[in-house]
Amino acid sequence: MRIAYINFYSMENVYRAGVLITDESTRPVEFRVTSNLDVDRLQEILYGEALQEVLYKERFTVQLLNALQEDYDIVLTKEKSLLSIRKEIDKPVVHIQKYDPFMPLNRLSHKVINIHDRYEPLYITVNKEDENRLVSISHQLQDMYRNFNIMEPFKRVEKALKYIMESEIAAERADLSVR
Length: 179
What we know:
The protein has helices spanning about 40-45, 50-65, 135-145, 150-179, and strands at about 5-10, 15-20, 30-35, 35-40, 75, 95-100, 110, 120-125. The N and C termini lie far apart (about 50 Å). By secondary structure, the chain is of the alpha+beta class. Strands 1, 2, 3, 4, 5, 6, 7 and 8 form an 8-stranded mixed sheet that branches.
């Protein structure tokens, strides 16, 4: 199973998104990033708490997924609001988070465990369009989770975005000092 991990990073009102496709052993297959999106103070004020959700859903995610060259089976995200992009792409979107025993269970969610207790239990949720695929997706993720931490690629995407943004800032500063 190939997974498209989508993650986001912001630094000083500049936002960026990245997607990493991995194989079943979490090895990278393809990586794409968006360009920087600067958000000014007025936009922050007007959008308020909805700013990140709007940026992630409307400006980044679908654009990134459509730009991918390699095929993938599911999109994995830590942003629950991204479940709604399922209508715009032809692949299941799976929200994943740490398992919380006090979290209410529902028909669109499933618990994923590492049978060796190496990694903490997880909780996945799918869009209602993929309700009939939930158990299959859960079993595939659980098989991967047996040997690989399926949450770790999110950190890779975030670190890569941070590295790219910091490198660009350093290059701009170097360019300015040369002038």
